[in-house]
Amino acid sequence: DAGITQSPRHKVTETGTPVTLRCHQTENHRYMYWYRQDPGHGLRLIHYSYGVKDTDKGEVSDGYSVSRSKTEDFLLTLESATSSQTSVYFCAISESQAVGSYEQYFGPGTRLTVT
Amino acid sequence: TQLLEQSPQFLSIQEGENLTVYCNSSSVFSSLQWYRQEPGEGPVLLVTVVTGGEVKKLKRLTFQFGDARKDSSLHITAAQPGDTGLYLCAGERPGGFKTIFGAGTRLFVKA
Q: Searching chain B, which residue's CA lies closest to the CA of residue A43?
């Protein structure tokens, strides 16, 4: 199994509070991703990183920010949590493979509830 | 927005039956991956298909990539309760390193 950990694994927070989720990898992979998973929507990309301090927005980035100061760590921050951000959040990593292949390896997920 | 549509959304079958899950899009993908996810865990990669028309087998699972690289199918022969889970297809867009996911097919195999 790829060495990916997420912390915390579960969190309950109140509307309006800031929240930071952490993803840590031991694989030295270049690319890191944050997804959210909601029933009926599958996995939707929030932000991704293609190197240290190199990040870009995904399809559902509003209300989220990210930082990557080291290869192994990718942080996701909800500046002011809202109930619509209640979800399961997954971190994933990938490294350049053969042409046409960007297989991703996922962490165990963080279940976030915003009350 | 490029979409990947999976069908059926939910499938409940008896042990020993065969089944096919479909993943369709109007867009071309450089590659397509299939993942399986169990409750409380992250998705786990099953296979990647790259070439149009490619067929890959993983024990009782057969994966096919459409000739035009817009669709894929997953066929399971003689399903077992251990096959229960959420099956996700994911397409890599041309240009690389961003992938879009289908909403998944939830499979339940009854003993």
A: B101
Residue B1 pLDDT level (bands cut at 50, 70, 90): low
Q: Taking CB atoms and an 8 Å limit, are A104 and B104 in contact across chains?
A: no
In the predicted structure, residue B19 carries a pLDDT above the cut 80: yes
Beta-bridge mates of residue B102: none
Q: Compute the distance between CA of residue B14 and CA of residue B110 in angstroms, rounded to an integer.
A: 5
* A contact set with B (CB within 8 A): 4, 31, 35, 40-45, 48, 50, 58-59, 90, 92, 94, 96, 98-109
Start-to-end Cα distance in chain B: 40
Cα–Cα dist A90/A33, whole Å: 8
CB-CB under 8 Å, A109 with B40: yes
Residue B34 reports pLDDT greater than 80: yes
User: Is B45 touching A (CB cutoff 8 A)?
Assistant: yes
Q: Do B45 and A99 touch (CB under 8 A)?
A: no
- Of residues A84, A89, A34, the one with CA closest to residue A59: A34
pLDDT tens profile B50-73: 899 999 999 999 999 999 999 999
Q: Tokens 């290869």 identify what position?
A: A71
What does residue B62 show for φ and ψ, rounded to 5 degrees?
-120, 125
Residue B74 · residue B18 · CB < 8 Å: no
